[in-house]
Design brief:
With 82 residues, the protein is an alpha+beta fold. The protein has one domain (17-81). 41% of the residues lie in helices and 12% in strands. It has 3 helices and 2 strands, in the order H-E-E-H-H. The chain has helices spanning 17-23, 46-57, 67-81; strands spanning 31-35, 41-45. The protein has a two-stranded antiparallel ribbon with strand order 1-2. The longest helix has 15 residues, at 67-81.
Length: 82
């Protein structure tokens, strides 16, 4: 999906509706804006950023391993030792 937009004097850009729809963006979404070395801007919601991070890590984790539960268990064990 490609469209054009213009930035106003205040630095605001309106993302065209068809691009918002294609990207799954909804009114009120908080966006993470990342500037690349090539001068591009990448926009992601927090949910999209988390999913991307999970996809990057997934190949390195054994199936069925729950890192969140391991972290919680470690904290409970530390609390019990105190």
């Amino acid at each position: 999906m490609q469209a054009t937009a213009r930035m106003n004097r205040q630095g605001r850009i309106v993302i065209p509706a068809e691009c918002r729809t294609a990207a799954g963006l909804k009114p009120g979404d908080e966006l993470i804006v990342e500037a690349t070395a090539e001068g591009e801007l990448h926009l992601r919601t927090r949910e999209q950023a988390v999913k991307r991070a999970q996809a990057i890590i997934a190949p390195y984790l054994p199936k069925g391993r729950d890192l969140v539960q391991e972290f919680i268990d470690e904290r409970h064990a530390e609390a019990a030792r105190e």
